[in-house]
Amino acid sequence: MQARRAQPAPGRRPDGPRGLGRQDARRLVAAILSSIYPGLGQAYNRQARLVLLFALPITLLTLLGTGLVLSQPRQVLFARLLIPDVLLALLMVNLMILAWRLTAAVQAFLDGRHPGRVSPPAALGLVLVLGLAAAPQGYLGYLGYGVYQTANAIFYGGPDEGHSGPTTPAETLAPGETMAPTPSPAPSPDWLVGGRINVLLMGIDSRPSRRHALADTLIVVSIDPKGKTVSMVSIPRDMVDVPMGNGDIYGPKINSLIGYADANPKQFPQGGTRALEDALGALLGIQIHYYARVDLIGFINMVDAVGGIDVDVKKPLNGAGYNDFGVRNFSVGVGIHHFDGKEALAYARIRKAAGESDFTRAARQQEVLVALRDAAVKRGLLDLGRLQALLEATREAIRTDFPPEHLPDLAALAAEIDASRTVSAVIKSPLVHSGKAGDPRGSIQVPVYDKILEMARGLFTEPGVPPIPWPSPKPTPVPSPTATPTLP
């Protein structure tokens, strides 16, 4: 009787499970290993040269990145990650790493040490391996691109329509139409020698119901890199008759200057923001270099994007008469309260309630900002759905012309300046006085120029000289001189 060679069952290879042979299984194991870390699959295949080829670049890049992270303070590292050019470079590196991982996985799968034809199930398995490897890193790149878009809009997006000039790209203009000139920045301070850095902070109300954008909050912040101090002064939004820096006087309320200048580009060719910077600079006798603007509607959206904020109210607030953004007669008692965007804005804006002032409002604004930061960390940054909404809201809410390449310097400097080295003042009586009854401009504050300049000279001193607090109900202590007068 002649022996007959046994045949495998249909669909089963003699060396593996149904539809997937031993060599196919080894291919997939090698591909999975190299998709996790390039070179592991090549080591599994015992290809020493290929291990070095695929693993060495990733290892060197990992060591370099780890060294950079560990060698910098956390706040400086975070500031670097907000620079659009750095974000773009990281996006490109992320794409290159993804391509390298996928290439290593495919090479490990197709390695010549696994002879035989690749079965359809094995090919499908490779596709799944590549997809699973690419998905998390691809989504990380997607989020990174969202952060890049946000940072790019904040630093390079320019003022929005109704604030300080057009944002219409040149290619969308009608034939024969030209773009209005964008605001020209003031001469930049010398960062190397530690000159003062003067920034105008603005809270802008740009609701569609407004004929012009109104500056709801005006604060000039001056940073002294030599003395490691910060001087701040709040300007009443109802101030009138403000000098323009060119010999002219702006008669209406100062909070309307941005919208008025934008509506009259022939008179203000550099835009409303530059006009406001020049006017407040002339009022205080300083040069304002940069601006940072927060749109109030955008602030509401930012708070709502993180699901609201929790604020520990230490003192009852009765805002009877408050009526803005759909919130009327806002009041809140002592305790922890959860505010949505409109309520958070009301809590931060009320200043005419009994026992309240610009000082107490400033403290509440700080509470709201801290609460927003905490909510963003706890909910917005960890919840991918909220993170997208937060990025979009931030993209629409904030604009600045501060040079992003100096963010790490500013972050390092800010780490050395605490509340004890911050001197603040509010322009109020006797620096201003109320207008006469019947003035068509309504409730106004008329500046007393010589007294304002005297206050400003003490507040914005020469670099390295401690600022002099302007008398207030609670005077700020004069910061002591620092022994390290150089910019980090």
Description:
Strand 2 (214-224) and strand 3 form a beta hairpin. The chain has helices spanning 22-36, 40-44, 48-70, 74-80, 84-109, 120-156, 257-263, 272-284, 296-305, 341-349, 358-380, 384-397, 407-414, 449-459; strands at 197-205, 214-224, 229-234, 242-243, 249-250, 290-295, 309-313, 317-324, 327-332, 335-339, 398-400, 422-426, 432-434, 445-447. The chain has a six-stranded mixed sheet with strand order 11-6-1-2-3-12. It has a two-stranded antiparallel sheet with strand order 4-5. A two-stranded antiparallel ribbon has the order 7-10. The longest helix has 37 residues, at 120-156. The protein has two domains: 22-156; 161-166 and 181-488, LCP protein (Aminopeptidase, 3-Layer(aba) Sandwich), CATH 3.40.630.190. Helices cover 43% and strands 15% of the residues. The radius of gyration is 30 Å and the shape is elongated. With 488 residues, it is α+β, with helices and mostly antiparallel strands. The chain has 14 helices and 14 strands.
